[in-house]
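Lab notebook, bench 4. Still working through the backlog of constructs that have no structural model yet. Next entry is a single chain of 809 residues. Request: give me the structure tokens for it.
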Amino acid sequence: MIMRGGRSLVSSPPAFSNDAKKLLLCTSNTVSVFSTATGLQITSLEGHTALVTSVVVVPPSSPAAKVLCYCWTASLDGTIRYWDFSVPELVKTIDIRVPIFNMVIPSFLNIPAEDNGRHQDLFAYVFTEDTKETQEKTKALRRQIRKCNLSKSRLVGRLILGETKKPEVLTVSPSGKFFGIRNKCKLHIWKVPDQGSEHAAVRKITLHHTKKITVIAFHPTQRIIAAGDVTGRILTWRGFGNVAFAGSNGVENQNLINIQEDKPGVRDNDDADSCSTWHWHSAEVNVLSFSSDGAYLYSGGKEGVLVVWQLDTGKKKFLPRIGSPLLYFIDSPDPTLSAISCADNQIHLLKMPSMGILKTISGIKAPCCYPEMYKGLGSGIAFDQTAGMVALRTENYCIQFYSLFDDCGIFEVQVCERNHQPGDDVMVIVTAVALSVDGSLMSTSEVKLAEEGIGGLVCLKFWQAGSQNKEFSLSTIVYEPHRDAGISAVTFHPSGNMVVSSSFGGDFKIWKCNNDIIQNDQMHQNFSWTCHAVGSYKKRPMTAAAFSADGSVLAVAAETLITLWNPYKNVLLAVLGETLTPIVNLSFLGKSDNLVAASCGSNPQLSVWSMSKLSLSWSYKLRIEAVASAVDSSSFAALALLPESFNETTFKGRDGVILLYNATDPVPTAIWSVRKAKGGALGFLQVNPSSFEDGKTPEVLLAYMNGDHEYVVFDPCCKDAHEVSMSQKGGLSVLDLKGEGGQYGYASIYGELAEFDKKRRETPWVPSFPSERPWETIFSGSSHNLPPLTKLCSAFLESLLEKRTASVE
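Model written out:
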């Protein structure tokens, strides 16, 4: 294996280093360390064998100790590890042999005085799973809160602080004196005992609410705790635990419970002075955090809006349009810097108190959730073979371009000009995305769903990349390219100047690029696309399409048949058939004369066809999710889904396999079992020899992306699974750091200014083709560019008349 990526950056709350120059993120079974100045990854902590659930940075014992970089991590592999993340180096490992869902270390925050020069033991509180099954104990309560002695590397006896059905999040107060969890409609709070004995009694209180609590937060200095619920309300209890946590024995002032007359908002005689309620959020509250001085409370939820509440007055201000539900809000030791984690796998670094976004750490976007009728249209993933990038659709109507080698987001293209509000019903679906071979052109298809049966629309769009930043701009829009039928596939010609789109309505269209070169100080190309040809076969739905390597043959699947066409003359060459179920994927195998087809349904099939013999070479009964072919060879890879019976026995939970074939041999040359194959994708990547430090350059790389958009890039021809180190020559890490050391002033902050060109057009013309008509060229373009109506009428009427040649007698 060469490299892995695409992991979630927001599975657990992040943590800042003591100097606020680094941000530690839990990324699967590793901890990734990012620079807050550049937003780029610096290093990673590798050693855990399962998901890392918590990371806790050791605070400095003195101002001079801020440069120290130590942290504790906990994982589902049952280990707690101590790291020096400046090196990085593993210092200590504690194996408690039970999965750890969450961990807090209050002792860091409540530092006691040394007892006769002797250091106190360091304790952590962990949320674990009881893996032992007994007859007396049912499986209902198997998640436990345990105390762990980090100094002695063991759990504290049989001490169990609490049990729940599901693992909950442990939240510790900034003072280190309390920690708590939410459990349905209840809030459990424990007071951290003194460090004298590991068996000291831990006192607990419970606060009640009528709705399910989703998140809690402690005030930094006062006995105030805030909680958010599923309805969007925020409750604030003041003076909690004044009775239970008052004396050393916990029963001091016990009679005050019955004497107190006025406890506004407090339910069930809870141990709190008062409880107040705020309500702004329309959905459940996911984020609650007090400011470092305790004067403000930050809240966020599904709306993608960060709300700042003034604690004394209840006044609020907002950071709107973040674009995704909020998950975590973390303060840093630097009061001018905070971080907010979002559900779209992005982390924004905020400048406080203005709440401006300084940097964004972009992970790969999660798969989209679409209505059931559109789930079978493909994964919406396209690979840029030359640049090592992948283009994938996102929920906010964008196409994200993600670097597979650098494991970071590059840019996003707004496909549909529509405001995305988290939680809204899906009204626009990007059904297909395709890239040209060199990655300079892109085509997308989208469906605007009808509202109450009115307003449905299918669009085909063509995009061109800029010469400098590679970001795409819209060049052509085609409304209803196949009447009211949906588009099943979009594929580029190898030369890039031709695109074929197939439809379920029974036809396919070939679109040709008109490349107009505008002469000015800098050569500028303006692309526009027009319909070159239309084809169909017995009115069958066209379900897939592919060009040959030289572009001379176009293969279009007409349900269970494969039709071969001359794309330049639009002539039917041959018909191959017939499969048992409709074909959903076609791909020519490099420069060979073979074609691979994948069909789905009750009788799925993977078949290889010979173009020279126009016959079937070999086939398998496999349910294929994705197919990728190498450009310069006859090899191809297929992602096959396994039957459920295989997952439980032979493959141990893996639900798919990657099969590497040579076109002429039905026996696969290599097989890899994978997880989360449903919704996955495959793609071959071209290799840049300068990217490899050791000089061993593989011929080609294969990228596999699973249904959760996690990916692995490896050499399919290498039998040894050793890792190959990739250098960052010319990569993003070097490019982004150049601005720090080599530029000054304005350029170091905003970059170099673009040269002003007086002759450059401010708004490029985007031609739009409403439908296929003989007079389409007359009405093409924007309305302000059209000739007067008096001139259009004569041309329009002439296009409807047939011209006759006069006969001379």
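Notes after review: The chain has a mean pLDDT of 82. The first strand starts at residue 3 and ends at 5. Flag for follow-up if needed.
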